[in-house]
Amino acid sequence: TKAVALDYAPRRVRVNAICPGSVRDDPRVEGRMLAEIARALDVPVAEHEQTFVQAQPMNALVEPDDVATAALWLASDESRQVTGTVLTVDGGFSAR
User: Contact, 43 vs 96, CB < 8 A?
Assistant: First the structure.
């Protein structure tokens, strides 16, 4: 993101990335990652999710809305001076 951000900064185009952590699956979506892994391990989905929750410093999985809110902020004028960055939305997991 940094190189592209520098290329486009003179045009006032911002370039950023969002790196989400373990995001809670949407039960309406086919092929949910956590559910598929739980099935492969032959454990209940709730139990498998709890394993991920316990590894999170904030004791919760990232919700899809958390990632969407970050994207909306990056797209808004409130972040007009933010470019060339990676916004990690992982509940503090990568801070360890």
Answer: no
Tell me, rounded to whole angstroms, the distance of Cα 29 from its chain centroid. 17
pTM (2 decimals)? 0.83
- The DSSP-derived string for 27-95 is TTSTT-HHHHHHHHHTS-HHHHHHHHHHTSTTSSPBPHHHHHHHHHHHHSGGGTT--SEEEEESTTGGG
- Could you give all domains of the chain from N- to C-terminal order, each with its CATH number? 2-95 (3.40.50.720)
pLDDT in single tens digits along all 96 residues of the chain: 999 999 999 999 999 999 998 888 776 666 578 888 888 999 998 888 898 889 899 999 899 999 999 999 999 999 999 999 999 999 999 998
- Burial zone of 5 (CB within 10 Å; 0-12 exposed, 13-18 middle, 19+ buried): middle
Strand, coil or helix: what is 13? coil
> Is the distance from CB of 13 to CB of 55 less than 8 angstroms?
no
